[in-house]
Task: structure prediction
Amino acid sequence: MEIRRATSTGELIDAQHLYDGPALKEWAARFLAAPGHLMLIAYVDGFPAGMVSGIEMTHPDKGTEMCLYELSVDEAHRRRGIGRALTEALAAQARERGCYGMWVGVDTDNAAALATYTASGARSDGVFAMLTWDFDA
Result:
């Protein structure tokens, strides 16, 4: 397995089977152009077997932290340590960028995600509620 940072829209499009839906070229280009956005892709024999995306977030009184936005591993490649390796690689990138920490929101019934993040050194901060707004596009 090799983990590389995606630097082209082609790489992001090629990994779209790992997303919740199809990738759009213009959104992929916007993602790559946005400061603090990064995606790491794990390749197994040249196949994009997993990805993790992160977004740096800076606040005037806190500094910069990394949000682990999304982690996905191709179903045929699960339970091989790819998710953990991607999470650890993102944490390493966050440290290199000077982030003071990293966080992720996880559904409390997502045992696989909780196990992956815990195995890579994360700890629970307690109860977490996520509230969302949907805007018509």
Observations:
- The chain has four helices and five strands.
- The radius of gyration is 15 Å.
- The first strand starts at residue 2 and ends at 5.
- The first helix runs from residue 9 to 14.
